[in-house]
Every structure is written in structure tokens, then in C-alpha cells.
Design a protein that fits this description.
Agglutinin, subunit A; 8-stranded antiparallel beta sheet; alpha+beta; 22 strands; 4-stranded antiparallel beta sheet; elongated
Length: 348
């Protein structure tokens, strides 16, 4: 049973269990009403009551109250005045009292990202480009224009275009167009490579994103008095937005911070991937990613411990360049995305 309807109660030794079996709400023998995560037995919320509390009642007036045998109230949700309300233990781990009209009245604020959740119909092996992140065909060039000076062209054949690859993949998925089947990046048409380069530039999406890349590359992993929140703390803060994107069925591009340096050019040592799924066990969150450095791989993940922002915990991956980053990521953040029609990349 995952809910306590109006007029029903939980006595000592009884419990509610979420539909997915991942959380349970127990009225304990010690008088405490406690919400547990089943994976690891971690307590997510508690009423803070003790003996002689003996039962939790979902009253007809909409108030959830923990009572002692003599009728004294030891804890209440303070939601009286809402007849017909019920207590629901949701699959996301949140304990919520809903009014008769379906309006939430109270919540334990213990949302978990259990999953598994994935963007429908997406696998890197079947929807993302089959070729990797370079090298690119001869003639792939980055043109730079500065007012009053001649245009400059820079050879881009050895550049990493991870942001462009990630953005193009989402473009393709959202447009419902076919997977790019070429397997060797150096043999794709130059116009396709130039399009990917253009999407790389789009992935920076203005000065705000550039400043964020620079800030995170320069910021320490841990919180400090001088710089405030560290990279790990900021990464934890980014997770709700990333999870919401994937839960809504959208691929989410994220910028991986791989290096720490005060040198501005160090930002080019970082990376971009697409998050397409997630699952949580205990405090371990696993993000499933498309990594253009590992084309045609459906098993590339990022893992991190999300229980708190301090101390700093390792963020690991089996993707990117394992030799360069030794399977570790400093942190990441969600990139702003704007759709672009990928029709131009289908070159006969």
C-alpha cells in the first residue's frame, strides 16, 4: 500500500511502501514515523517523535497527526481544513499530502531520482553519428573575423568538436531524421564537418557560457571563503535541471570540467557530452551519456555521490579520454541549447 486515505491510520509496526518498492514509511515501535530509502536503509525524513507515540492518523479534516495512546498529539502536518486529503508515498521518494482536489498541501521534500529513466527511442549506437570526434577532412577551417582586419582561417582538422557533435545529435533526434552512418570522421564531406564546427560555436551560446566555462575551470573543487561554492557544489546544484530535461524526454548537453587552470586557453581541454538517461541507487547517481570520444557506445556513464555538497566526492566516468583524465571529472553544468534544422548535413 502506497497511501493513507482519509480516516485511515498506521499503527506501530505497520508501513506504507512506494509502488516501485524503493522507499517505505514506517510507524516504528519507538514512536517515530520514518521514511526510509530501501536501497541502503537511509532515513530520508522523520517526524521526530518517540514513546509514547503509537499511531499516525490521516484525519478526515486533512491533518496528518502522530498520536500517543492517550490521545495526545506529538506531531502534525498542519493541513487541517482539507477534508478528503490523503497521504501518498510517491515513486520518486517524496511523501505528499494531497487535497481532495489533487492540490499538494504538504511534502517531505525527499525527491529521489531513482529511475531508470531514459529519453525514449535514443541509444548512441542507433541515433548519434557513428563517427568519432575527429580528425576532420582536409579543408575544415575556422574563420575568424575582426572588424578592420582581413578574415583569418584556422585549420580545424585536429580540433575537438564535441559541443558541435552533441548539439547535432540532439538536432537529429528532435527532427526525427536518420542517423549519420559514416564511421570515419576524416572521410565525411567537408560541408558536414563545417556544420559541426558551426554547432560547436553555437554551444558556447554567448558570453555568459564562456564566462561559466572560464569560472569553473579556474575554481577549486571544494568550497572556499574567497571563491564561494566549489566545482563539486555547483555540480550538485546543476543536477535538478539536468534530471528534469531527461525526465521530460529531452537529451541534455552538459559541459564536463576536466581541468583546473587560471590560463584562459585551458577551457579547450574540457569536453561536452549528452545525458540521455539516469538511475539512482542509494546516494550514487549514474548518468548515461553519449560521448563523441566513444562513438557507438551505449555503456558510457558518469557516476557521483549526491548525498551532500561537502566533502568533495569523486566524479568518475568510463568515457572521454581515459589517458588524459584518468576516468575522473571535476564537475559539469547544463548547456543552453537551441534547435537547428539538421537537413543541411544530409549530403549526397
Amino acid at each position: 500500500m502506497d497511501r493513507l486515505r482519509s480516516g485511515r491510520q498506521l499503527g506501530r509496526g505497520t508501513e506504507l511502501v512506494a509502488g516501485n518498492g524503493r522507499t517505505r514509511l514506517a510507524m516504528q515501535a519507538d514512536g517515530n514515523l520514518v521514511l526510509y530509502r530501501v536501497d541502503d536503509g537511509h532515513a530520508l525524513w522523520a517526524s521526530g517523535t518517540s514513546q509514547p507515540a503509537s499511531r499516525a492518523v490521516m484525519q478526515a479534516d486533512g491533518n496528518l497527526v502522530v498520536y500517543a495512546p492517550d490521545g495526545r498529539a506529538h506531531w502534525a502536518s498542519d493541513t487541517a481544513g482539507n477534508p478528503g486529503a490523503q497521504l501518498v508515498l510517491q515513486d520518486d521518494g517524496n511523501l505528499v499530502i494531497y487535497g481532495g482536489n489533487g492540490q499538494p498541501l504538504w511534502a517531505s521534500r525527499t525527491v529521489q531520482w531513482f529511475g531508470p529513466v531514459a529519453v525514449p527511442g535514443f541509444l548512441p549506437s542507433t541515433r548519434a553519428p557513428r563517427f568519432g570526434n575527429g580528425p576532420w577532412p582536409a579543408g575544415t577551417e575556422l574563420s575568424i573575423s575582426v572588424a578592420g582586419l582581413p578574415e583569418i582561417s584556422i585549420d580545424a582538422t585536429r580540433m575537438g568538436l564535441c559541443g558541435g557533435m552533441s548539439f547535432l545529435t540532439r538536432d537529429i533526434v528532435e527532427s526525427g531524421t536518420p542517423q549519420l552512418r559514416a564511421t570515419r570522421s576524416e572521410q565525411i564531406p567537408v560541408p558536414l564537418a563545417q556544420h559541426i564546427l558551426g554547432r560547436l560555436l553555437d554551444s558556447f551560446s554567448g558570453s555568459a557560457t564562456v564566462k561559466r566555462w572560464l569560472s569553473l575551470t579556474q575554481t577549486p573543487d571544494e568550497d572556499t571563503r574567497v571563491r564561494g561554492r566549489g566545482v563539486f557544489h555547483r555540480t550538485i546544484d546543476e543536477l535538478p535541471g539536468i534530471i528534469a530535461e531527461v525526465a521530460a524526454g529531452r537529451l541534455c548537453p552538459i559541459g564536463l570540467v576536466l581541468t583546473q587552470s587560471l590560463a584562459p586557453w585551458a577551457v579547450f581541454e574540457n569536453h561536452v557530452v549528452l545525458v540521455w538517461g539516469y538511475e539512482q541507487h542509494g546516494d550514487t547517481l549514474t548518468l548515461r551519456t553519449y560521448d563523441c570520444n566513444r562513438p557507438r557506445r551505449d555503456d558510457i556513464t558518469i557516476q557521483l555521490t549526491i548525498g551532500s555538497t561537502t566533502p568533495v566526492r569523486p566524479i568518475t566516468t568510463n568515457g572521454t579520454d581515459m589517458r588524459a583524465n584518468d576516468g575522473h571529472v571535476r564537475g559539469f553544468f547544463r548547456l543552453r541549447y537551441r534547435h537547428k534544422d539538421p537537413a543541411a548535413v544530409y549530403i549526397e
